[in-house]
Amino acid sequence: LAGGKRLRPILMEESFRLFGGNSAIVEPFMAALEMIHNYSLVHDDLPAMDNDEYRRGRKTTWNVYGEGMAVLAGDALLNKAFETAAEAFSMIGEAADIAARYAAVAKALQILANKAGIYGMIGGQTVDVELTGKAVPREKLDFIYRLKTGALLEASMMIGAVLAGATEDELKQVEMIASDIGLAFQIQDDLLDILGDSAVLGKPVCSDEENGKVTYVTVHGLEESKKDVAEISKRAVTRLDQLPYKNEFLDELILELVNRKK
To answer: Which of 63, 73, 147, 241 is most buried, judging by how many CB atoms fall within 10 Å of its CB?
Structure first.
């Protein structure tokens, strides 16, 4: 109910459409991924993590209901996500290519679990927590961003593509596109933490600095970070245009990430 950009389900739906998908089978995965994203935010806000009291203009879950209930709420969202995603199996029906559709849903579940787990988002968050307050080498920062933010964005686009019948080569291309989007998105997030307006963002600014976190901006500086976020976003669009399919809205959405204010 607190809103949010719903960026991940939008990317999933538009990737599904990019490869010709036109059914409701993507919808359980759209909801599931948003649940996973939100559980990670509930846990991120905890005093043991980022210690944030506001998100999206409202008090955070732990700030209202206590730390124990916030941990349970995050756990519940994660479990509910896979329960919801599995509902896609019941939506397959009796199509002529029923075996292929079952395989696609199973592959989508595998991607969801992998990108949300220790080789994805959780892996990135683990290294992020481990290195808080310490000097972070460039390669470690890239690793954190690729997993912590990029992994769920990769899941979004890859699941949409898989459910629509994309080939393995097309899936690899989509993963690279989403990886670029994730990096650009996180750099812009770092910029907003310094340059943004807390009233617009709905959360405090300069929280990374207060928590002793090394970010892309602290390593590369403001101007280089602004330049990089624009170039990386354009690279993602260029790769997207190399696919044999077109989705102009998806192109515009990726570039919009560069100019977002929240």
So the answer is: 147
pTM exceeds 0.85, yes or no: yes
Q: Which of 48-75 are b and which e, b meaning 16 or more Cβ less than 10 Å from the residue's Cβ?
A: ebbebebbeeeebbbbeeeeeebbebbe
The residues, ordered by sequence, that sit 6+ positions from 198 with a Cβ below 8 Å of its Cβ are 204, 205
Q: Write out the two tokens for 22.
A: 């036109």
Q: What is the pLDDT along the chain (262 residues), one digit of tens a residue?
A: 667 789 899 999 999 999 999 999 999 999 999 999 999 999 999 999 989 999 888 899 999 999 999 999 999 999 999 999 999 999 998 777 899 999 999 999 999 999 999 999 999 999 988 888 888 887 888 888 889 889 999 999 999 999 999 999 999 999 999 999 999 888 988 888 888 655 544 545 555 555 556 788 888 888 999 999 889 988 998 999 999 898 889 888 888 877 777 6
